[in-house]
Amino acid sequence: MAAENSFAEAGADLELIGIQKRFPGFTAIENLDLTIPAGSFFALLGPSGCGKTTTLRLVAGLEDPSAGRILIGGQDVTALKPHKRPVNTVFQSYALFPHMTILENVAFGLRRRKISNPLQKADEVLRLVELDQVADRKPAQLSGGQQQRVALARAVVNRPALLLLDEPLGALDLKLRRQMQFELKQIQQEVGLTFLHVTHDQEEAMTMADTVAVMNKGRIEQMGAPEELYELPKTVFVANFLGQSNLFTVDVDGGNDQTLHTVLPGGKISVPRARSERTQGTMTVGVRPEKLRLHTSAPADEAGVNTLGPGTITDVSFIGVSTQYTVELPALGSVEVFAQNVEAGPAARLGDQVWLSWHVEHTFGLADDHLETGSLTTEFSTQAIATQATLSE
Asked: What angle do CA 50, 54, 56 make, to 5 degrees?
């Protein structure tokens, strides 16, 4: 195959089949099956230690799987060395050559592969990331956001069938990170390559990705479009990791073809059958804080509306676009309410007695009942967990 033909015209699909990765005393990934369509922007989302970075390293060839196969564009690459795979990786650390100009940094990989017209191709990609005007500068003369775009240009110029992004925006400040999220998505759509983005940042994943897979303890809890995962989580982990949720333990108490009726201490909650993973017994139902409405007096019963209360406001936090309330409900505990600031000043005050209501169609029913303590706040990498497990034996 000629060097010129090694450029990918479009992204390739990625398929992981029965992937396992075991460290001494610890299994990081257990029987992972995953297919990422060609040309898509796919995000692997999860907390530290869930196995997402290990998965990316397996695809890049930086780790070997304990079992399973990795296919890129239908080709089995499981046994291939990293430089033999049609893959490039953009890390959080930019790793630019400080003594080279920006243009030379981007052209470096093309020169090594003996691709013709490396400077011309590098210049074209720098125009894509809007950095052609600083092509003759050194990395130290650029801002963090510009350096990140150079790192991206250096990866894209090689036209990999699959581009791996490992927490690429983690070192940027909030405003720049949001700008780069928009730019990354635009670049992906323009170049048409397959992007696999690993992140623990929920907003980042939902802003950029076509499809998000939420990973927990070496397996995928739920996968789908960002709005689908947010509006209709299937497990307690997904409901709590992807945004915030108010969760209630209820007992199913009848219903009809469309709706389940449930009871809980001091109230009733209805949930659409189509939005519930369970239909009988004790279950967990939830609703997002921004779906709730505050009432300073008991609202009239209304078809298609759930109501709880009265409760007492125990905290009020003004955050600009919304005011966040914590409402303590007898026998149910704390409930979070996000109210958009459409009027001057908060609608209710600390200590006020209030009722809560929301549309039945915004309720979801989950497949499981509880969240294991600490599973959302683990700060260990899979390597650290493996080492810890070995030492404790």
From this structure: 115
Cβ-contact 45, 34 below 8 angstroms: no
Query: How does pLDDT run across 207-223, given as a tens digit for each residue?
Result: 899 999 999 999 999 99
Amino acid in position 88: N
Q: Where are the alpha helices (DSSP H) in the chain?
A: 52-60, 102-112, 118-128, 144-156, 174-191, 202-208, 226-231, 236-241, 382-392
Q: Which residues 6+ apart lie within 8 Å of 155 measured at CB?
A: 88, 89, 90, 163
Question: How many residues appear in the chain?
Answer: 393
Q: For residue 219, give the nearest of 4, 48, 12, 52 by alpha carbon.
A: 52
DSSP string, 249-273: EEEEEEE-SSEEEEEETTEEEEEEG
Going by C-alpha positions, the residue among 276, 246, 247 that lies closest to residue 261 is 276
Structural domains in the chain plus CATH codes: 4-229 (3.40.50.300), 246-365 (2.40.50.140)
Whole-number Å distance between alpha carbons of 366 and 368: 6
Are 295 and 356 spatial neighbours (Cβ–Cβ below 8 Å)? yes
Structure tokens at 260: 């389940």
Helix or strand holding residue 165 (H, E)? strand 162-166
Contacts of 58 (CB under 8 A, 6+ apart): 16, 19, 21, 29, 64, 65, 70
Instruction: Name every residue whose Cβ is closer than 8 Å to that of residue 166 and which is 6 or more positions away in sequence.
Output: 53, 56, 89, 90, 91, 92, 198
Rounded to two decimals, the pTM is 0.83
DSSP state of 209: -
Rg (CA), the chain: 25
Angle of CA points 19, 21, 27, to nearest 5°: 120
Cβ neighbors of 131 (< 8 A, separation 6 or more) are 102, 146, 149, 150, 153
pLDDT tens string 252-285: 998 899 999 999 988 899 999 999 999 999 999 9
What is the DSSP-derived secondary structure letter of residue 232?
Answer: S
